[in-house]
Design goal:
- The protein is α/β, with parallel strands linked by helices.
- It folds into two domains: about 170 residues, 3-Layer(aba) Sandwich (Rossmann fold), CATH 3.40.50; about 120 residues, TPP-binding domain (Rossmann fold, 3-Layer(aba) Sandwich).
- Helix content is about 25%, strand content about 25%.
- It is built from eight helices and 14 strands.
- It has a nine-stranded mixed beta sheet with strand order 7-6-5-8-4-1-2-3-9, sandwiched between helices.
- The longest helix is centred in the first third of the chain and has 16 residues.
- The protein is elongated.
- The model has no long low-confidence stretch (mean pLDDT about 90).
Length: about 325
């Protein structure tokens, strides 16, 4: 049986991205259910660190040094190299993240190999003849289950589709000579760091999110207070981001981040389907809204019908009193 490849992504400092640990765990779970052997692939200017970290999750990781990845768009460089390696090794399936880079890489690999693609998977399980891929479509209104024809293809997977868990024993890291690229490299002319960098909301255990109901940018002050009191991070609905009240880095939903915290508190968020897609898998959802018929009422675990500017200060006072001032 052919293998399943997991293409690892790296952070700016060369470490392995969290989503790649989730993909590796997913590939291992597929193998345990009867699927192909999982193999990791890391392509980068200096792939050593990320490859070693990925080997904590997979039995075998291939590190491919591609010096041009340092000053060129990574997805194009890595996609080109992965496609060339796939042609030589012949894995059946390639798993990549549904991040912007991951989607670009997946499309590059599929285009060069002529393979099919299933995108934005929220769950992947092993069936009799291959992976069964569950996807959320039409803004989260429908869930579909699909398969790939021919025993091969590319699957892009959303964050939090699997809980990362290291293997019982670390795997081995091998190096492979970088194959010659066939695509023109896209040179990076400028890098811009986000001015309001925050802790990644898709990794947070507690998310306090504000929506249109906070009334404006100043309304996020109380959201930040509650997040600080509960040891969480600040999230936001698309409506609040589109209004310019808070940066896109905080956006939760179909066009933002997919989060899976232990606690999600929605302040002044109606809970439209596009937002629900991004947070519905939270363990506990608390909604504070003046409208008892808001969509979020249907799926929240606890609903507070009232003014968030009255409720949150009272909650903060209660938390303060409980902690002895």
């Amino acid at each position: 049986m052919s293998s399943t490849w997991v293409v690892g992504e790296t952070n700016a400092d060369g470490s392995l991205a969290k989503i790649s640990t989730e993909l590796a765990t997913l590939a291992r779970n597929l193998a345990d259910a009867g699927g192909p052997t999982p193999v990791g692939v890391v392509v980068g200017a200096d792939p050593g660190r990320a490859a070693t970290e990925l080997a904590a999750y997979l039995p075998r990781v291939v590190a491919v040094a591609a010096p041009d990845a340092a000053d060129h768009a990574w997805a194009a460089v890595a996609g080109d190299r992965v496609a060339a390696l796939v042609g030589a090794d012949g894995p059946g399936y390639v798993l990549v993240s549904a991040s912007p880079d991951g989607r670009d890489l997946g499309g590059t690999v599929a285009g060069l190999l002529g393979w099919g693609v299933l995108g934005n998977a929220i769950a992947v399980t092993w069936a009799d003849e291959g992976p069964s891929v569950e996807m959320s479509v039409f803004g989260g209104r429908l869930l579909t289950t699909s398969a790939l024809n021919g025993g091969r293809g590319v699957i892009t997977v959303r964050p939090n589709a699997a809980a990362a868990a290291a293997a019982a024993a670390p795997g081995v890291v091998e190096t492979a000579a970088p194959p010659t690229g066939t695509l023109p490299a896209v040179r990076i002319v400028e890098r811009v760091a986000e001015a309001e960098a925050i802790a990644p909301i898709d990794e947070a255990r507690v998310v306090i999110a504000g929506g249109r109901g906070v009334g404006g940018p100043e309304g996020f002050g109380i959201v930040e207070e509650l997040a600080k009191a509960l040891g969480g991070v600040v999230g936001a609905s698309r409506a609040a981001v589109d209004a310019g009240w808070i940066s896109y880095a905080h956006q939760v939903g179909q066009t933002g981040k997919i989060v899976k915290p232990q606690l999600y508190v929605a302040l002044g968020i109606s809970g439209a389907i596009q937002h629900k897609v991004g947070m519905q898998t939270a363990e506990t959802i608390i909604a504070v809204n003046r409208d008892p018929e808001a969509p979020i009422v249907e799926f929240a675990d606890v609903v507070v019908v009232g003014d968030l500017f009255e409720f949150v200060p009272a909650l903060l006072d209660a938390l303060k009193a409980r902690r002895g001032g």
